[in-house]
Design brief:
Strand content: 15-25%
Strand order of the largest sheet: 1-2-4-3-5-6-7-8
Number of domains: 1
CATH topology: Rossmann fold
Shape: globular
CATH class: Alpha Beta
Structural class: alpha/beta
Order of helices and strands: EEEHEHEHEHHHHHHEHEHH
Number of strands: 8
Largest sheet: 8 strands, mixed
Amino acid sequence: MTTSTLTLPDGRVLEYVEGGDPAGVPTLVHHGTPGGPVLDPGWESSAREHGLRLVLAARPGYAGSTRHPGRCVADVVADTVALADHLGVDRFVTWGWSGGGPHALACAALLPGRVVAAATLAGVAPYDAEGLDFMEGMGEGNIEEFGLALSGEEALRPLAQEQGAAMADVTPAELAEAMAPHLTPVDAAEITGPGTIGATLAAQTRTGFASGVDGWVDDDLMFTRPWGCNLDGIRVPVLLLQGRQDAMVPFGHGQWLARQLDGVVDARLTEEDGHLTLVTRRLPEVFGWLRGRWDAVTG
């Protein structure tokens, strides 16, 4: 995994990492909330097996990426275009997990000439989605967090600073304890189990909070506002994964998105998956699907 920075047209800095197959299919990755530019070793190994080149950028305010106050989900598109142009990439596939899911969908909606296919794993639905109770089924930690976000930055920031400080130098076991109000037993077991996701999440939070918690604060505020793009306009294939054992992004979000994306979506809604199992157990499935869509279009 290599780390680089790019100066964007508006003068902001974007930090990103690359991994997987350097000569593979360009695959732009959108991290979760909170998060940072760290690729799990298992993701890289699977990406190499499927011939994918992973490029993960830190959203504004995370790690070394300059803050962009007041951003909306669709603002990721301009940054993604700048990064793809910088890399010499014309067309690409994209995927996002959790808070990264909406950003992958925004790219699919607004860049149909460049995005070949997109995948969203446990992706958040719009707060103003008709027929969706955004917080129904969330763990108590997320309910508190988004309740404060609805009251604005002044109300939210103290919580983010307190929790960010607690996670600044956290171990996987400590992370599982800190995230307990957000986790189902299925996901708690993933963090403390024999895999690498606990260490990766700990590294993502340490890296993501290197310059403070602005990215986390802005993500939460952003998810309570309109996205700035219309999902009805998506015409490229979308893979959607959501598990019922998820207390961070409830099952209803996946169901709503599946209905909204009818006609382009391959929706895989499972009873057994949680939030974390989608990246610990199902990512090879996602990578295989993305590679298949790429091959079908590019020959």
